[in-house]
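Reproducibility note. Readers wishing to regenerate the assembly model reported in the main text can use the exact inputs given here. Chain order matters: entities are listed in the order in which they were concatenated for prediction.
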Amino acid sequence: MANTWGYGAMTNSLGDIQNAKAIIIFGANPAVNHPVGFQHFLKAQERNNAQMIVVDPVFTKTAAKADIYVRIRPGTDIAFMYGMLHLIFKNGWEDEDFINDRVYAMDDIKAEAEKWTPEKVSDVTGVPADKLIQVTKLYANAGVGTLIWAMGLTQHSIGSSNTRLAPILQLALGNMGKEGGGTNILRGHDNVQGATDMGCLSDTLPGYYGLSEGSWKYFASSWGVDFEWLQGRFKSPEWMGKKGFTLARWWAGAINGKDGNDQIHNAGTGLKNLFVMGNGITSIAQQAKVKEGLDSLDMLVLCDPFVNEAAILTDKQDDVFILPAATQFETSGTVVATNRSVQWRTKVVDPLYESKTDQWIMFELAKRLGFYDEFTAGMKIKENKKDFTWPEDATDEIARIIKTIGLTGWTAKRVKSHTENWHMFDQISGRGYGKMKGEYYGLPWPCWTEKHSGSPVLYNTNRSVAEGGMGFRNRFGLEHDGTNLLAEDGSAPKNSAIEGGYPEINKDNIEKVLGITLTADEKAKIGKNWKVDKSNIIAEKCMEKGLAPYGNAKARAKVWTFPDQIPMHREPLHSPRADLVKEFPSYEDKSNHFRVDTKYVSKQTEQEWVKDFPINLVTGRLVNMNGAGMENRASKYLAALTPEMFCSINPDLAGRHGIRDGSMMWIHSPEGTKIKVKAKYSHSVTEDRIFIPFHFAGHFQGEDRTSNFPAGTAPYASGESANTVTNYGYDIVTQIPETKGGLCRIEYAKEEA
Amino acid sequence: MGEFARLNFYCDEHRCINCDGCSVACAEAHELPEYISRRKVITMNEGIENMEYSLSIACMHCTDAPCEQVCPVDCFYIREDGIVLHDKDKCIGCAYCLYACPFGAPQFPLDGAFGTKGVMDKCTMCAGGPEETNSHAERELYGQNRISEGKVPVCAAMCSTKALLVGDSAEISDIYRERILSKGHGVKTQPYGWDVAYGKKM
Amino acid sequence: MKKRYLALIVLLSTFLFGSKADSSIWGTDLLTHILEYDKEGSLHMGYWFTLIQSTYVKPMLLFVLIVIPLAFIVHYLLIGPKRFSHEGRSIMMFPLFKRINHGIAAISFIIIVPTGIIMIFGSTFGGGAFVRFCKEAHAISAPLFFLSVIPMLLTWFSRMLLSPKDDLRWLKIVGGYLSKEKKPVPAGMFNMGQKIYFWIVTLGGLVMIATSVALYFVDFEIIRPVLEYYSLSQIDFLRISALTHNIIGIVIVAMFMVHIYMSVFAIEGAYKSMVDGKMHEEEVKILHSTYYKELQEKGEV
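Running the prediction on these inputs yields the following structure tokens for the assembly.
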């Protein structure tokens, strides 16, 4: 998404969904994963008579509340969306003015959409043509529609294309920058948005700054740390700018290409030590490989309030350390919600037993590794103090430094005041009143200055920048192939000094673009561009002129740096349609993809997978469980709701394999792994697919490993991990695993005595 | 709440998503054993398009409660605000209240010697029991007493989508009406079970 | 070994959890039962149970407990007991096996009947531990009764069959108990009154056992196929069982009181037969005249 218009986050908010007249959900299950947030969907249905369309391979609890349910074959969302675009352009339902003023390269999309007739779409996706027509007609003519997605769209080998075509669909309909519209990705866990904002990814620095030398230098000086010293921490200067391993494939680094595994590019060494804070190891695809990776490590450290099941999965006997971390209730700090709002969390109780807060663990580690001073220097800079106060100074450090997403306004004081006064905000718009007038709850970023209200609806040109309005970000240059990439006249935010588009502001063009003159003092202090402007002069001046510091450009439907410039449908690596694999093959294999050679088309065509593995494997979530499930399976009543790992299977499919309701069955994967789970008859899946929840761990390929738990730490419920049988497959850009599109084979499990 | 208000439960099947938040909250708040299910969520026609719906069921604290009418040891007492409670010390575990109840609210631990049913347990609308309010004994036998602290029963407080409501019947009727009229239903005239629990009124 | 232990725990846990999910009362069927409660086309058992149990059961029992003893007191004062001579031979009527059988039944009834009455009037006794104890005693004696009623049914079956010629006549004269005379009464080894009592207690007793098992265990699957055949839900089955149990119970209480009066008061010294199994010749000649003739024909008298 960021490659389409600048920022890759939910554009509106959950409360704003109540303004929608139509809601279309691709591969998300908010009734299960956001039960409280789902209230907004239901209220939209009640108050607006909003029609909710759910597109999902499984009839989920969300689908049960839908007005229209569309059962789609996993991995064919691009085909479906092109089908919608085909009809939209054919019938003239697109918003021409919006496209002219604010979108680049929609014609390329139009050309591709031409090919996707309802019949073609029906063949590829399994959705009847008339249903496609019904859905598109309803959604396109609803007035304002919001598009929701989650892992169902992202966890594919073409996930990055999926998440570009969905915004393009909304752009075509002119649903962006409107209340009740937008592309609303529902982040799954508490503070995932905060984690990605802070750069817990291997290809960005905090705040999505890239790994260029300029970024590093900015951070070094912002932290009060010597750049050379920072550079010296890497094997050589060039490694400072290289992307690291991902969570999806760190284990390939540990295995280091042995025995036919993918080769790595890691300066000649394998991955030796792994320090894990939180979940994540057992919720990643290909657990058999993960286990191999764990076994190959020199040292493994797991920090979590509950025993991370990676500890019992591995056969490693030595140098495995389990550190008890404290929970969020035992410490204070900020979290960021899926709608980019920040909230303060206050400590409720001191850390229990011997557990320590995450920050204590990291500080102690830094001390022993010898860089504690550098590590904490940044927190003391603002007030030039000798000692820092956690977490207020950390929060202020973030606000001081992160400009890319406009966190300048997120001072600890402001954030706390919002949480203390959270009753003073409107549920739907987030607007504050009384004491909090002029602010939106949680100051959704970008919050350009310490006075800024926050931006609840991104790209909304009906508001002034000071009140959260803005155009699309100028991130991709001023023009491409001769076409102007800035927004056309008439599409600037309200009260803007410039009526149309303008570039992102930097030291060199600020006077010209804004039509102002800087004082000598300002000229001395101002940063090179708005992203590294420590003085915040650029942002302040922009606010005065009603301009967004990041410019006002067109969103681009074509990403000329991606392998597929416009999103193209490609079959999943393990596809049940061998004929379509020939027509829509996957990408060329990619070497050095986050340091690991990753297979695409070679894997897809290695054999005709569907012959031996005819069933679609769909993974998903349960309402009473979260992530890898360690925490919830240790809670008595939550575990009692689903005490065993199971597989939702269509009764007809089960019958053909002699599997009764409640009997055990094997699921075999193309990677050669298998799991033994209990069958649960369900009509929510059709005969060509099964559904398994991914929250269980503790058993591995039929073997119960829970005896490995230290005494008294085993959860109430354990089971096979779905990820033992999820297939090989990673997104071409982000390397997210293709856990939502895979194949498997099932068979009845004979009971042992 | 009016002076003569009676507290009713209402579960909106258009909003209930079977998140089991209510049943888990109840079990946690009152530290129930796993085999007692004061509140449960039932889903009908699971997986079948346009037919699946879920409801959260517990004691409805009926007007003219049939359980109270049939109890041989008269262990029930009905508060002025309509909450139906019982005395576990008097209860003999005969299960007549279960037979009389239209909602299957009475639960039995089935844990006595020779498999006898044990004393009855049911939703107290978080109003405790005949023991002294907020005493240890009350907490052990009946669970938390939130009503005495002016709080809403924990199931309705917890409900993710505000499908489960509890309160004065007039107020709840207003909320219900508002919901169905704006969506344009108008077909059903009462929430499920209200005619049985509270007589034919909305 | 560990696997088996684990499998057992898993099995048990699914039973605990699964029993509620598959429970015929608290499972998925619950919603159907709620929706159909007291609706047209249903059996209305919930309504009937509540009505009958709350309004009629106690008064009916009270009526029985008051009127029957009252009637017998009046009878005893006006007519008095029948006295038979203890001269002459004693005829063995009830061999040891039958006496033991009857004795066990008697003991079980002595526990079952009063505890049943106490339970129905539970509130008068203040509920709580005492009534709970009575309930458990009631339940424990039921298997005891079951043990005795089957042999009784089998061994006394032929003698208890109705004989058209004697029994209707016996009924017309109420067995001769409404007069002080000692005229021979048409009856075989057992008279009509005894036969009525027998059949009510055995057949009714079996029904009582069946319903009591249902009421005791409440949540079971084992007869589900049968219930489904009759489109009867488990909860309605329980409601019918409860009503049947209580109504037949009241009938049995009434009959039991009659039996006590007849065997202890109305015929002087009759209770001794329970112990030694014998009846004196005059009593047999008068009260069981047909049987006496039979014995004469056989030459035993």
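We highlight two features of this model. The longest strand of chain B covers residues 7-11. The mean pLDDT of chain B is 88.
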